[in-house]
Target: PKD domain-containing protein
Amino acid sequence: MTDRRRFLSLCSIAGTGVLAACISNREGKETQSRDLPTNFSETAIKSPTESPTPTTSLTETNEVKTQAAKVYPTDGDSGDWFGRSVAMSSEGATAIITTLFEEGTNGDGAGSAYIFETSGESWDQQARLTPDDGNSEDWFGRSVAMSSDGTTTIIGATGDEDPNGDLAGSAYVFEDNDNSWGQQAKLTPGDGDREDFFGVSAAVSSDGTSAIIGAHRDKNSNGEEAGSAYVFQDRNGSWSQQAKLTPVDGDSGNRFGMSVAMSSDGTRAIIGAQNHDPSDGEIAGSAYVFKADDGSWSQQAKLTPDDGESNDGFGSAAAVSGDATTAIISAHRDKNSNGEEAGSAYVFQDRNGSWSQQAKLTPDDGDSTDWFGSPVTLSSSGATAIIGASQDEDPNGEQAGSAYIFEANGGSWSQQAKLASADGDSGDRFGVSMAVSDDATTALIGAPHDEDPNGKRAGSAYVFTL
Model:
């Protein structure tokens, strides 16, 4: 692997807040070979011997939330980064959790994804997914999205070089047919090229027939690394590209497509460009609203925060309600009353086609370099948001990470709870990834650097009952 490929791949993989850790992980990653199990029905839940101690934020009105389970793969090993990306079905009964550096059958850094299902209080591992043509350093699992019924999933592989060149990237569609998961399609853009990092982000419609996939380093008419997002559709079992989306005012280095979100019906999308330079300053960031009418996509709005400033990184993460009238967009490097790079998240609403900022969210106990807003997720109704702070040190130590629940009541947003793992430790990066059920009663949160029980940076994921 060339030095350039290593550097670029690490930048893509790291996302918000984990580049330094990523580099040290790859240089010191253990490469023990191991036999992979052939039967994945064995349970993969760790139930603490004592009731976990939930954490709350600092206001008396906050409700206590209970950690229901800790989940990890039966074949986990050190350096896997299990929990780097997660997604969940609408009712919260099926989850997909990816490993980024798991080597498995396809080579070092090939990546994989695991399906877990719950019946009652037990979460069971049902399948392990890898692509038919997987290879070393594909980074399969960089992004993931799941249909409402939990039977279709889109998985990004930003390091894949087939067919468009080194680090061009790809995405894979897997489907569950009668409890048997299989690969249905491999998606690549019609104009893909090397170092596009297609697959860095992904979202899917409720019925699993429309998907949007980001390629944040794509070179297009807007310049080098301007970025693009691609819409794909499934028609009678055959997937094809429907549109390539770029912003009207795009420019070199914007990294449009770093984050994507899609409405339930697949006709609206929010796309982040965290390095865009609007009037707010260099690398302040922007987000764009696109809409499809009769299959034709067009830009509807450009979103920027009222108080945006240079280096905020607004657009690094995005989520949207089912009807696409409420969006939450992060600015994980925002400087606010909590300190430098404490981070913020902004709520925007669409009223009769006009988008406006409704709220700016920050945690009660935020601090410098918490990177609050990496990532964000939103309930189907748009009334509950869960926001990660993967570098927060309270209560489990430096860069242990946490997540916050915010709810809207009559248009006013307030913090309701703070979540942290019961067995958390320094460097776990709890909150790097998250998903929530449609009704906001179940949350899944990844901690890709957790070492218990599978080794250093093996990773795990936590289920919370909200």
